[in-house]
Backbone:
């Protein structure tokens, strides 16, 4: 009931509660180190990483862009946080024997078949729309969902409701049914 | 400790917990949207329960400053709905896409590539959005307790209540 045996992991209640402690410790530590409280988030980093890539492809365009100027392209605390998420997940998966090469998730496969190209197209398109929306809303499930709601921000609560409303509608339309573990 | 190192260490711990909590899987993310697997709800609500109390205590002690994102109605609602639709198809949010890659789920690379393109498109669209969706109605930085004129602890108690009810429901339904 409280276990998470399928992934050889921990109970999501325990891991979540520890993530809550991390959010508290992180708020305190950033206040000390950065001189300003920073909260867990990820999507702004994608803006900065995107600008770094665009600089290579279309030189000069980033410098003229108002939004990139506003968000300041730099490798900051949050940028390294996102890099850390990759390393931390890798370490946890490797030590917990949960690392698994996966090109097409099983739930996707049941609905759309085992084509990697189809999954690549869906994943890419979904990523484009999700990030456009996250930047418009000024946050993702980390910034709005965890950090915003924890601080009792009205924007965080409204954003989470909209994330789930949009997500449930789209998931229903895609008709992805069935138990993914069958 | 400098800024970048602190970020890296915090991120490693966050990524470790996301993996151990089992939230880095397409099935878990989309499963919650289908009410089939509520792992991410359990993870998020648990984090929020603990975090909300700690952040409130630290803020009252003057050790941290809360930072509320603007309640720009059009942006949060339209952006939130768009995000949700993209999330259902991609199966990952920005943080979990990076974590899923660390877990070996390499199709997350396509999602990350899409997200980088999405961010660039948003940057291109920003001047037009600023005079349209972003200009509809901005309520500014709103905290729920001040908006309702109640104690933050009452809001936290309600949040805890909602979380516990959802946990009982999840375990009762075995999802």
Residues:
């Amino acid at each position: 009931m409280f276990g998470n045996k399928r992934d050889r992991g921990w109970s999501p209640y325990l891991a979540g509660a520890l993530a809550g402690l991390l959010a508290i410790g992180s708020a305190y530590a950033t206040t000390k180190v950065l001189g300003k409280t920073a909260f867990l988030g990820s999507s702004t980093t994608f803006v900065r990483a995107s600008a770094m890539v665009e600089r290579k492809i279309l030189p000069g365009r980033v410098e003229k862009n108002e939004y990139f100027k506003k968000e300041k392209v730099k490798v900051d605390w949050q940028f390294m946080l996102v890099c850390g998420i990759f390393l931390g997940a890798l370490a946890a998966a490797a030590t917990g024997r949960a690392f698994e090469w996966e090109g097409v998730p099983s739930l996707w496969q049941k609905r759309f078949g085992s084509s990697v190209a189809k999954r690549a197209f869906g994943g890419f398109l979904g990523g484009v729309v999700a990030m456009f929306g996250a930047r418009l809303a000024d946050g993702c499930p980390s910034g709005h969902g965890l950090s915003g709601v924890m601080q009792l921000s009205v924007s965080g609560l409204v954003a989470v409701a909209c994330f789930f409303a949009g997500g449930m509608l789209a998931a229903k339309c895609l008709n992805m049914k069935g138990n993914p573990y069958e | 400790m400098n800024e970048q190192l602190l970020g890296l260490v915090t991120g490693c711990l966050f990524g470790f917990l996301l993996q151990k909590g089992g939230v880095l899987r397409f099935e878990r993310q989309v499963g919650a949207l289908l009410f089939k697997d509520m792992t991410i709800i359990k993870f998020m609500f648990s984090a929020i329960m603990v975090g909300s109390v700690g952040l409130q205590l630290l803020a009252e002690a003057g050790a941290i400053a809360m930072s509320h994102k603007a309640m720009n109605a059009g942006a949060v609602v339209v952006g939130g709905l768009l995000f949700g639709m993209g999330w259902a198809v991609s199966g990952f949010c920005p943080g979990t896409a990076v974590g899923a890659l660390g877990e070996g789920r390499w199709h997350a690379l396509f999602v990350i590539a899409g997200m980088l393109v999405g961010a660039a498109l948003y940057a291109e669209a920003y001047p037009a959005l600023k005079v349209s969706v972003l200009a509809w109605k901005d309520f500014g930085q709103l905290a729920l307790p001040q908006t309702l004129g109640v104690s933050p602890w009452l809001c936290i108690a309600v949040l805890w209540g909602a979380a516990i009810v959802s946990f009982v429901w999840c375990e009762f339904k075995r999802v």
Observations:
- Chain A is about 70% helix and 0% strand.
